[in-house]
Design goal:
By secondary structure, the protein is α+β, with helices and mostly antiparallel strands. The protein contains 8 helices and 20 strands. 17% of the residues lie in helices and 30% in strands. Strands 1, 2, 3, 4, 5, 6, 7, 8, 9, 10, 11, 12 and 13 form a 13-stranded mixed sheet that branches. A 5-stranded mixed sheet has the order 18-17-16-19-20. Strands 14-15 form a two-stranded antiparallel ribbon.
Length: 448
């Protein structure tokens, strides 16, 4: 799944997470941010019903054997019971290995009739087997290459995430949840009637593989978030409906109707032309320059998780790596193993790390520290300004995005700064330390 899909659709497809094989592969994210910290693990064995497993095995076989599919769909999502649910409808066309076309309309209540009606242009996701287009309501589009075998291809509207990609099947997800001790129960819910037809229902309860913010977690009984799915399996052995809820009040449903398996379609049915007026995204504004190299690093006050005060000036005469991050920031979390590895190599070389949690709330920070106390060795502190006020990153260091790192030399001057994280090959921090006289090995890039 490409990053454009994730950012473009995240605010519209408020879909459940556990149905997708991994958060990064799902075309959508929850309406409220979740942290990447590992959830608390319960080693109690999950309750798994053999009939439920057999039914999901039938679903996997039927999905694998189907060559094509057409259907109408609806998606309903609500992360706040006090606000109207988000409702979408549309149609899907699938043809293996990697052809797809989806049109999805956001529904809005008509003020005159009181009825739900389609609001403007659709969101379109189309693949002609070579390229994939995501076209938003306003005509903004993103284009990317498509895997020849459809790996990662999904539109997020179908109750099953694995029509093109078998690695995302329910059984694969359950196996992963078992290994991580996240699965709570998988049971057969009997035959139930939905819209006049009978379906075999599988009830699936698991802990999410991430942590929600404390404001949501505290609404869950005993502070333990559970994600429950009810999968309605039709006589064709496909999942026609997925009703779900998080036990802090979020609910939703994905459903397909008028399902046709293996209709007469060829690759020509998936030829696609961008609509008139379609346009690429506007380039983002250039980032605001951070505090320049060669100037004195401003002193600041931060606090540890147990309330102790820490000042940058406490480390006068030492080299300091200042790392600005937040619990909700995915790239920040992705960069931390690298920071930890660097810290282990420099902690005995008169180098200090101050990983400053900024633009965040204190409860989220405290929980992150608890969840990661055995994962990372470097010290962390919290900006008392929280999400507002005169924060350290923005006010003192002119930071507009995180993660951002500064390397301060022994004289208290900024020697280098790095904005963002570019993955495993990002060794700008090592290069910055070298400017201050601290040399550590940089791993060789893998040979192509």
């Amino acid at each position: 799944m490409n990053i454009q899909r994730l950012t473009s659709l995240g605010s519209l497809l408020l879909l459940p997470i556990a149905l997708a094989s991994g958060a990064s592969a799902d075309p959508a994210t929850p309406a409220a941010p979740a942290t990447n910290a590992a959830p608390i693990v319960d080693m109690t064995p999950a309750k798994v019903d053999a009939k439920a497993m057999a039914l999901l095995g039938d679903v996997e076989k039927a999905t694998a054997s189907a060559k094509g599919l057409t259907a109408d769909f609806t998606v309903t999502s609500s992360f706040d019971p006090e606000k109207p649910a988000v409702v979408q409808e549309g149609a899907i066309q699938y043809l293996k290995p990697n052809y797809m076309h989806t049109d999805a309309w956001l529904l809005k209540k008509d003020e005159t009739s009181g009825q739900m009606a389609r609001d403007g242009a659709p969101i379109t996701i189309a693949s002609n087997g070579k390229s994939e287009w995501i076209v938003m309501k306003d005509g903004e589009y993103h284009q990317s290459d498509v895997d020849p075998m459809g790996k990662g291809l999904s539109n997020g509207y179908d109750p099953s995430a694995n029509f093109f990609d078998p690695s995302r099947s329910a059984l694969k997800q359950i196996d992963d949840q078992k290994q991580k001790h996240l699965l709570v129960s998988l049971t057969y819910g009997g035959q139930q009637t939905w819209e006049g037809k009978k379906y075999d229902v599988v009830d699936w309860v698991a802990k999410p593989g991430f942590n929600f913010p404390p404001a949501m977690t505290k609404k869950a009984p005993n502070g333990v978030v559970l994600y429950t799915q009810h999968l309605y399996i039709g006589s064709d052995k496909l999942v026609h409906r997925q009703a779900y809820d998080y036990n802090f009040g979020a609910t939703g449903e994905r459903a397909i109707r008028n399902v046709q398996i293996n209709p007469k379609m060829t690759a020509k049915n998936f030829d696609y032309t961008l609509p008139v007026g379609a346009h690429l995204p506007k380039p983002p504004p250039p980032p605001t320059p951070v505090l320049a190299n060669g100037v004195a690093a401003p002193d600041f006050l931060a606090t540890t998780s147990d309330g102790k005060e820490v000042h940058l000036s406490d480390y006068k005469g030492k080299r300091v790596i200042i790392d600005f991050w937040a619990t909700w920031c995915g790239p920040c979390q992705a960069s931390m193993p690298h920071l930890n590895n660097v810290y282990k190599q420099v902690k005995d070389k008169d180098v200090v790390v101050l990983a400053v949690c900024v633009w965040d709330d204190k409860d989220s920070y405290a929980k992150w520290v608890t969840d990661n106390k055995t994962t990372y060795d470097f010290p962390t502190v919290f900006d008392p300004a929280g999400k507002g006020g005169k924060n350290i990153a923005g006010e003192l260091y002119k930071v507009s995005g995180i993660p951002t790192q500064f390397v301060v030399d022994k004289d208290g001057m900024i020697a280098a700064s790095n904005v963002g994280y570019m993955g495993e090959t990002d060794h700008r921090l090592e290069a910055a330390l070298a400017k201050t006289g601290v040399d550590i090995p940089v791993p060789e890039a893998p040979k192509s």
